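Assemble and predict.
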Amino acid sequence: MHEIRIHGRGGQGAVLAGSILATAFVGEGKHVVAVPSFGFERRGAPVASYVRVDDRPIRQMTNIYRPDCILCIDPTVARAVNIFDGVAEGAVLVQTTARELTELQLPDRVTCVGLCDAVAIALAIFRRPITNTIMLGAFAKTTGLVSLASLRMALEQSDFRDAGLRQNLDALAAGFERTVVHRLLHEAAA
Amino acid sequence: MKKQAYPFFDTTGVPDDLCPIAVRPNPMLPGEWRSMKPVVDRAKCVKCAVCWVYCPVQCVVEKPAWFDIDYTTCKGCGICATECPHRAIAMVEEAA
Amino acid sequence: MTPLLEPAAKAPAFIVCDGNEAAAWAVALARVEMVAVYPITPQSSLVEYLAKLVADGTLDAEIVDAEGEHSVLSVLQGAALAGARTYTATCGPGLAFMFEPYLRQPGLRLPMVMSLVTRDTLTPQSVWGGHQDAMSVREVGWIQMYCETVQEVLDTVIMGYRIAEHRDVMLPVNVCHDGNYLSFGATRVDLPAQSDVDAFLGKPNVNWHAALDPARPMAVDPLTGGAGGPGPRTFVKYRKGHCAGMQNALAVITEAHADWARHTGRQHAPLVERYRMDDALLALVTIGSMTGAGKDAIDAARERGIPIGLVKVKTYRPFPTEAIVGALAGVRAVGVVDRSVSFGWNCGPLYQDVAGALGRAGRQVPSMSFIGGLAGADLTTDHFGGVVERVRQLAKDGRSGPTVWINEND
């Protein structure tokens, strides 16, 4: 089972990203549960969405405390919340940022990182910093857990139509192509 | 004999402990517990219909030259007597 | 009149959706004729899905946008008395605002299904899930069922009409699903075929016993009771009739679930579910979506050799006393997990009912109340692991212990 925790800010579509990802996984025959967290909804507030995926049925409808994948679709939310809370050994981080890998502070338990300047891509495609579909492409590239084709199908089944759908499909592809994946080697822990 | 425009709901086959309902109207009429009754003076009545408008149970009946009271439903509240602009209605004690 | 179109026949075979959307699809498949709505977190997206299904013709119903929940249910009572199959959803403060017509509905024996997207009641200010709202109205006389999964939400809303409209029951049904975890938790949901649902439910028959019809006048709910004349025995007659309907519901619910399984292949436990109880010496009792994590914790405990099982309550009203006592027949200690509080007893409401059922059956079993998951707090496998340990201790001590507040130190 994989436990994916999506971090973002209200208004960026972090929760929608969770449900599009869930649809894509179901399309590949997997069992999925996607649970969001919510509060007083407002733009900019940190939000999280929890996606569990497995080949066997998943029974627990709970939040995720030991994620093996962090998908962070906002470049600054890590300052407001600890996005690495409880992260498992050998975890994967998919992060939107304009910075280089060397500029980021990551815990040792994270051994694979996918970086994508999703905000820049979003401004080019949508003229707004809506990064969710771009980062789903980044997720597919970094983890290989879901195929781009499945994500495309999931987008086509969503409520997006016409120009909005085309833009999101472009965003998905751009996120996939322009994500750089780094595999990190750490000194063995004492 | 009163005429009934529509037959009451048929309760055949409906258990009597299901929903509290009633299809037998109470035989007691409001006119039966009146202590004062309105009497209209035909000479003073000008058919302005104020009593007809104000009667809370719509028991004022229009006749060709005046308005009369239907005593089966009149409960003797006295509003018609109070409102009549020509003082054509008097409240009289009901006979024992 | 049933239209010539088969709107919900255009429904896909499965979708990925959350509990709120699943409930809306169930309403469409059940061919509900009128919905009245008012939004309240965490139900709001449910009524939005209803509006969308009406707008695109999938749900052929009248939709009434009332000014508040009091009117929502009052409007539906009028519609039911005119013969309509009706639906609404609410929770928390919405349920509180609806309380007057909510009291009237079961007394009139008017069938309907109402989803409660359970939410902790208002103060301290909370918008998240708990069971306090549903538990607060457990004495009103509605049937109450709690769902464990999103699929079960869809299936139970549909089954609710079969149960509510059954001649031996004629009672409104609350289908409860947990705020946030089930209302917004998304997963794959299989949609039944419209033809199966039509065969399963049949046509609505909701006002054969009381109707607002100018062509057949009657008085509905005249003044009843008092100390003189036929009042006392008349009132008792109706209350006993209501209780009889509730008791009949136990068998009707069981039969409805069995028939649903024949149509769809999905057998949900109708009253209680026994999980690994065959050789269990210890037991947890759960209700609602917390059960998933509970079952995972039972599996983990079993792997360590602890003889523990889990009993999940689906039908809470009428309370399935026989099924509960039967399920707990061989155990030496019971931990009941509630997502709400009974202030009178300083314990959970489900705990009270379980303890009462065991006591009435003459079973002296050490038992404890565990209260957790209030106001959206999570009940994880780790939390359940702690509950398992405490119940093991309970079996060793042999004496019932004080209430444990699971999230107290979170």
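Confidence is low (pLDDT under 50) at residues 1-7 of chain C.
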